Model the fold of this input.
Amino acid sequence: MKINKTKLVYFCDNVVLFAIYAITFFLPISKALIESFMILAFLFYLFKKIINKECFLLNWFNLSLLIYVTVCLVSVFISTNFKISIMAFTFKHLEHVIFVLVVVDTLNSKTRIKNMLYILLVSSALLGLDGIFQFFKHQDFLRHRPPIFDKRLTASFTSPNAFGCFLVCMIPYSLVQVFIKFNNKKFKFMSAVLFSLLLVCLILAVSRGAWFAFIGAILFMSIWLPYLGITVAVLLLFTIFVLQFYNSLVNERLRNFFIFKDAGAMDRRVIWQAGWNMFKANPWFGLGLGTFMFNFKEFVTDKSFYIAYAHNCYLQIIAETGIIGLFSFLLILIFFFFRGIKLLISAQKTLSWYLLLASLASLLGYCIHMAVETILYSLDLGLLFWLIMSFGVAIMNNLEAEEAVGGQAG
Done:
């Protein structure tokens, strides 16, 4: 009986692991597959927990997730639209938090973490090639989408800003491989090629928010990798030097990098004003989870303006759940970055150390991009946020285990 139980737990664990790998690979390709594998992962993870009679560990990070979920649940019952809020809570916020717990618990070994890294690199390479194919053939080969907005690349995503967000999150994982001393030369070369491919796609996506996010992520990595800072400085100088050779759209956006007078920027000002008006209507608890678009018409100054998301995730959070909701969300980020940076300072530079650096830079870039986009509220990119975070926490756990073993050996 004991052997059967062990085999059953082993089987459930491997199904969950396979589902996580599949979600990671298909995240930028198919929303339907993401949802299917999410259900598979949740069911078999629950089976495993029941068989083992296990409970979730209550550490500081999990406590911050619990606080966040609790605040979201409270927001449902004081919402201006209960139906919208309960759907948003059940099928988005609660689902994402459970997903984080599942991924952190399942990626519990160095081998699994390395496999996760390889899947991220392969998936990003596929999207990079898809973007280049779209540039030359005017249609990507994954979803058969043409480039939009004056030939800005989207690859399999619906917008160039979404593609830019994905690229910003993947670039640190490819770039960091170049600086790992114990990687072989062939793998370093392939990683450098992948970084170049993703960087070209990022430029051709012409997403200013993603460009800002990329700069923030690279500057953070440069603190820990001085040679990277020098390399980036050379790249920036080269970018300025060859500015005249870019196409007209990229050239114009680079020349007006800090000038926000285009149509998109003007629209955001109207939307942000509406969001701020929502916040002022109930500053502590907000108007209800997921109700930004429902309440938009009531608070926008220009009544002819189309209903929209906030195009600023922090503003949308504070409009929907108030100061309490925003604080509970930021608390998760505080615990994540505090623990991660503390480990970067104290731990040895193993593979886990470099992957942690990439994860922190990736999530930092995402957080910067959230200030001008609604990426946290889309199915694929919203899940990407929690995937990177859970991957980072799993790496932290592995790195701490390595340090503990090293300390005992010493």
